[in-house]
Amino acid sequence: xxxxxxxxxxxxxxxxTWFGARxxxxxxxxxxxxxxGRNAPWWAIAxxxxxxxxxxxxxxxxxxxxxxxxxGFLQLVLGYLLARVAVSVLFLPxxxxxxxxxxxxLMRRRFGQRIRRLTAAIFLVTRALAEGVRVFAISLVISIVxxxxxxxSIILIVCLTLFYTFQGGMTAVIWTDVAQMGLYVFxxxxxxxxxxxxxxxxxxHAMTVAGEAGKLQVFDFRFSPTMQFFxxxxxxxxxxxxxxxxxxxxxxxxxLMVQRLLSARNEAQSxxxxxxxxxxxxxxxSLFLAIGVLLFVYYQDTHLVKPRTLDRIYPEFVWRHxxxxxxxxxxxxxxxxxxxxxxxxxxxxxxxxxIDFARWKPARERRSEAGSLKLARSMTVVWGIVLxxxxxxxxxxxxxxEAGLSIASVTLGLLLGVFLLGVLxxxxxxxxxxxxxxxxxxxxxxxxxxxxxxxxxxxxIGSTVTFAAGYGASFLQSSTxxxx
Length: 484
Hints:
Layout: H1 3-21, H2 30-35, H3 42-68, H4 75-90, H5 92-95, H6 105-110, H7 113-146, H8 150-198, H9 202-212, H10 227-230, H11 236-253, H12 255-262, H13 267-302, H14 313-321, H15 326-358, H16 369-393, H17 400-424, H18 430-450, H19 458-483
């Protein structure tokens, strides 16, 4: 172990934990703790959205995708842009009508308390599972650096992140996201130039080798209405349609993202943050895919043996081949991404638990603001323990990037479908909406386990079936009411 690198990593961990904990001052209400008092500027929220959207899965998983394949993953980013237009038009106006803490309060206003709790429960389960994969992803990095077991690595990173999230709430989440994102993008840029310097012939040679191997292909426009077409994960159509549905669901109905949008000073600032985040996302995915392509050329030129798990290829290169000091800085950058996303997940899981389950009671039974704030911090600790446990179970779930996205894709379509029923229809009632959710869940589970259809299509299928079944059930409900 190189002590200068370890010193850099340790200094970072101490500094970011101290920085986040400083924001405890001024946390006097749930609005302060869960929405940062709505004082954050739009550009900080935009960077926080990016940190939450990409996380360690991007840093660890994306280079592995381009190392094994090509740049086709970028096709999803086109769908991300369309999704932001949809979220801006369909959901943001509703979220800024009155005071909201979570996305699922909108469901209570439209349908009632049962749908609110159903959608909130779907979020809690999905986010916990997906975030558990991210926790495991960072344990890969820490175990490489420290030579410790993955369990010890998980406990370390969860405890440090939990400390400052517990103390500083959403304000700490946003501003540590900004600091940490700057660090990990800088670290990735340093890595790219170091890898390039190790390739004889430089950029021109790398592009020649990568081009001949098909690594520079971005678009796949092939189209055919067959099962084979829908089994392709990264085609133009899967990226455009699947990416649009996935991001509309995640940014429009998932509390992890909606909480950031609600933290803006007003609707206009929220919209500006949403669209600015797309530009950063495009740059970020391009950067990490380029790292994977250059690593492919480097491994081929030097005849190195690739790791058994491609998720390890970038962190292993960083630790073993970057200069002393630089390796510590880039490893700290990877840790930064993990802590940024984990802190966001802890705060959003706690906010949904407190607001949508514990706090919604008759006025005479409601807790005081101080009592609610204490409960919020307690739930942050509880969810930290849960995520650590799931992270320990996630070691056998395949590629961390695709595992995280596919888990989310199972249920995000249900949320998007029922939210669309809420904002686009008036005749659909609570029971019809619940029937739609059940039908959507059945459809997605069938597609997931009984067909070869790729995960990139699951959100589109789930949301379409949920919306159609819910709307259809509203006619049956109306007919039953008339007969009665």
